[in-house]
Fold:
Amino acid sequence: NPVEKDERASSVPIPGTPGPGLASVARGIAAWADQGGSSIRIGVPSDSGVSGIREVAQGGRVLQVRAVPGFVVAVVRAGGYRVTRTDAASGAVSVVWKGSSRPQIGAGGRAIAIGAGKAILTSRGGAARKVGDAKGTIAAIATDGSRVAVFERVSRKAKVSKRVTTVRNTAVRIAGRGR
Structure:
């Protein structure tokens, strides 16, 4: 079945039932998790589908998945929250961060960016280290491996039609560097 009239694209069945935030693809890697599942599936995407699919347990309910060449990052709920890094080649899973609130994650260029509350953390395979603080609550986070973009909710007082009101919006800023 062609997708958007692209003759190279095809629609093929895969195992599982991924939901929002539970599927990701990057050069040479596809990863997804079932809704309410405790493992991720990793495979190699091609024009004919996904091959070499294997399932890797994450030790808790998978809430979010991000794939980058070489590894997969997941937010997992197991008592508290944790961020795992799964090596695509070996399937080895390591926990890079643990906490009590649900984090935001981003991945790129061999780095992982984590936003936990107002804390900005990064990891390149080991435990995540704090690289800064956001001014507001972190809504989303992204990295290209050398920079971290933080999207944060901020509020300020503003005069609107002769009265002062609180204006809330989202701001982006580049914070720290991926280590």
Observations:
- The chain has a mean pLDDT of 90.
